[in-house]
# Entry
Amino acid sequence: MTDTRVREGQAWPRRLEWALLAVIVLAAAFLRLYRLDSVPPGLTHDEADTGHFVVSVYRGAPSQVEAPYGYANEPLTMFTGAAFMQLFGPTDLALRLHSAFFGLLLIVFGYLWARAAFGAATGLAMAALTAVSFWCVATSRFALNPQPAPTLFTGAMWALWLGLYGKQPPRARWWAWLLFALFLGASLWAYEVARATTAAVVFFGGLLAFTDRPRLRERGGWFAAAFLLGMALAAPHLLDPAAWQRSTTLATTWRALKAGDPGPMLKTVVEALGTFTFRGDPFITYNIPGLPIFNPLVGALFYGGVGLCLVRWRQPAYAFALLWTATGLLPSMVVGAWNSTLHSMGMQPVVFVLPGLAAVTASRWLGQRAGRWAARLAGVIFVGIVLLTGAYTARDYFHRWAQSPDVRAAYLQNLASITRYLEDVDTSGSVALSSPFPDLPHDPFIVDLRVHRDDLRLSWFDARGAIVLPAEATGLLIAPSGAALDSLFSERLSLELLERVQLRPDDLAPYFDIYRWQPEHALAQLLPASPGPIGAAGQEVVLPVDFGGAAELISFEVLDSRIVADEPLNVITAWRVLDPQVLGPVPADAYGIHAAIFVQLLDASDQVVAQDDRLDAPAWAWQTGEEFVQIHRLTVIDDLPPGTYRLALGLYVPSSGRRMPVLVDGVPVSDTVFLPSVEVVRP
# Structure
């Protein structure tokens, strides 16, 4: 039988080998755990979305495969992440530790596979390069769901090699075949990239029929049975159409190719190939824009390893390394360099085997021709390359990338600072929190992961358009610079500025303000008690006006009853929440109930000439009895004929378009109320 492992000139002392591996793993652990609570500098919405599902499982809810947003379609991370939350609490740090653990395990499994396939020196070289790679360090610190997939797939390949090339008879290695099936099946439950790399296993089985038929005859039955078992374990997930949701949304290049246009596919293939040494992922949330996977020194070794595998393709290990790399790159070849940091994760860690293989082969060649000193010198040079790569990674990740204002904005550093304040503040009660993203699954999920205080009651809104008035005598109001109070609010409300918390001056959101206020008196400060007459269905109605039992209009103000064309029309409405459940069930593609308020300017024939549909105090956060104020700004076109125009107002559910009925004495009379008319004049 053919032994696929590269024979080394001299066997490594086992203690030295394990000692070197321990040093590598310790260095990798430092790069993956150092300042893990502050780098990355906050949470992205995708990370918070992942955390939402993990926390749900942690709290005992069943995992749903079909996520309404964020493509959290692989459920394994929900359970492995929940296990880490059992150890470290339901926080974003637990999610980052979860990724760091699988990132370290990736190094161990990668070393074991490379050792089995090519020898100890190549295994150690791969482990060292993986440990210090910017790419692998970054992915090991994200609070996302992909990290288990390449780790489990690599574990499956190690087990496959034990089963195929172990010296014991196949029956004695039954446990290796079982591990292969379990790890392979689990990787397919973890992230979509495992589907692409699984194709490498299929191609490899076919290749053995040409390159190693004796081994295939002896162990092919075990190989096939274990592979089918792994696929059977993954079948309940893979047969669910929801599991392919993201794959179908990213297949535009395939559709163009099928339609006879190869241009988009050629472009993405070139981009993907360029990520190795030319131009990497441009997405700053995950990478320094354009930073390739390899620096020039490691890149040269990588291409040497690729060439070596092409020359020795008849040897199964070399052929499989190429197959694994190609299928691991396939998702990025379909979609391009954008987000390739995640899309190419299937080829971790095999792409680091290739430069290691080239370095070991070169060292051995030098040793045979120039003596042992030349081989040792080559080894020292390789160690120097690893150390230099590690130094650049530490600088690039912790300084260049983490301190970038764009990265701090992407990880919502302002909100992260607010959550630290809320976690530590010596107060309780209501907190009115303005946010540029108050709807689900955005900023609220971040706060859920980072603030764990039952004595704080948060109200969510975007103060650039609305403000929620908690049913409290006093409370805190927090407004970041990116969602500061509209001037209509700041000028009319009695607010005591307690502190302006300054962050970094170059941040895109460099501060947040903390106010003390009296929300129970705020409505009287914002709107008049007797705003004027309103009508519905041809009759005058009095405030409050009930909209289907969901909310009631309690006051309003039309700031200018006479406006000039081409100027904004400002309308303020105030509402009291009655029963948000009346708005209906949560749509299948949403995390919570939605609602919107429409304000329309109508001409004499009831044609809409200006309109504003919005709700900056999202309905998912409505609490019965709570009040909120919404600002509407309608843009009036400059050629609008002068005259009197009616103002129509209503409440509706965007997902269905259903308008809530206007109830008078409990009886529906219309779905629209009319505010006082507006006169439009020429400039």
Notes: The longest helix spans residues 372-401. The chain has three domains: 44-238+246-407, 412-525, 532-681. The two ends are 92 Å apart (CA to CA). The mean pLDDT is 93.
